[in-house]
Amino acid sequence: MFYSQPIVWQTRVIKDNQQVYTEERSTLDLYESEVITPTETYRLKDIFDVSYKPFSDNYGLLYLHTIKGVKTYMVKESPEAWMEAYHQWK
Question: What strands lie across the sheet with 47-54, from one edge to the other?
C-alpha cells in the first residue's frame, strides 16, 4: 500500500423508538495500480481524476471520477496528500 485516506459515513438506526446515528470508519487505500474502497476496487487506469470539496469545519467530500461514474466519500482529514500521491502514480 502506498497511501491510505481515512473516510467516514453515518448510519441511522432506530433503537428503542429513537433515531441513533453512528459514525462508521474505513479507508481508501492507494496502491501502485489500484484504489481499494470499502465496497469496490478500481484500477488506476479506470479513474479519470480525483477532487475534493470541504463543506464544513469538520467534513469534506472526496470524489473519485471513474468509468463507473463519480464516487463520493466523506472525509474528516484533508485528502490533499492522498490526492498528490494519486497524481504521482497516475
Answer: 41-43, 34-36, 18-30, 3-15, 69-75, 60-66, 47-54
